[in-house]
Amino acid sequence: MERLAVYPGSFDPITNGHLDIIKRGLRSFDRLIILVAYNPNKSGLFSVNERMEMIRQVVGDDPRIRVDSFSGLLVNYVRDAGAQVILRGLRALSDFEYEFQMALINRRLNRDIETVFLMTGYKWFYTSSNLIKEAAGHGGSVRGLVPEIVLQKLQAKYSTLSGKG
């Protein structure tokens, strides 16, 4: 039986920490759906389509990976996709409390779906999309924290937003 997991997140933008979880997740699962979860009432720095395209560019044409988006109950998406596992990355203790609550409510909503946590690699322990956006938005270098294509997209986005592009 194929082991399929769904790795949800906002991925606004995808970071090297996310890629660490993706690569390591593929050691445990045959296939992975990277799910750009979004709330239509909130706007990110990048549109959902821009995020999905960046992810596709970064992961390449790996046949084990599918990129999708969804707005709604995660457990419904996971069930409909035929997956049994939600893959989540953990960085610091502060992540654990929120992720634990989410895992518990997802378990209550659908007992057939498990949540599996992977600790991020030590190099990415304090890397988050929000911190990267904040640093890049103020002209700081985030080279090495995000894939090169994402770095270019961040620079272009902030250049356009500041009126320099």
Secondary structure layout plus pairing:
Elements: E1 4-9, H1 16-28, E2 31-37, H2 48-59, E3 65-70, H3 74-81, E4 85-90, H4 93-109, E5 114-119, H5 129-137, H6 148-161
Parallel strand pairs: 1-2, 1-4, 2-3, 4-5
List the defining traits of the structure above.
Rossmann fold; 6 helices; 165 residues; alpha/beta
Characterise the protein shown here.
By secondary structure, the chain is of the alpha/beta class. It has one domain (4-125): Rossmann fold (3-Layer(aba) Sandwich), CATH 3.40.50.620. The chain has helices spanning 16-28, 48-59, 74-81, 93-109, 129-137, 148-161; strands at 4-9, 31-37, 65-70, 85-90, 114-119. It is globular and about 50 Å long.
Strand count:
5
* Helix and strand composition category: alpha/beta
Taking all residues together, what is the mean pLDDT? 92
Low-confidence stretches: none
Q: How many domain units?
A: 1
Helix content: 40-55%
CATH architecture annotation name: 3-Layer(aba) Sandwich
- Give me the CATH superfamily: HUPs
Q: Please list the strands of the largest sheet in the order they lie side by side.
A: 3-2-1-4-5
Distance between the termini: 50 Å
- Briefly, what CATH class? Alpha Beta
Shape: globular
Please indicate the percent range of residues in DSSP E strands (runs of 2 or more).
15-25%
CATH topology: Rossmann fold
Rg (C-alpha, Å): 16 Å
- Describe the largest sheet: 5 strands, parallel
Oligomeric status of the shown chains?
single chain
Order of helices and strands: EHEHEHEHEHH
Total count of helical runs of at least 4 residues = 6
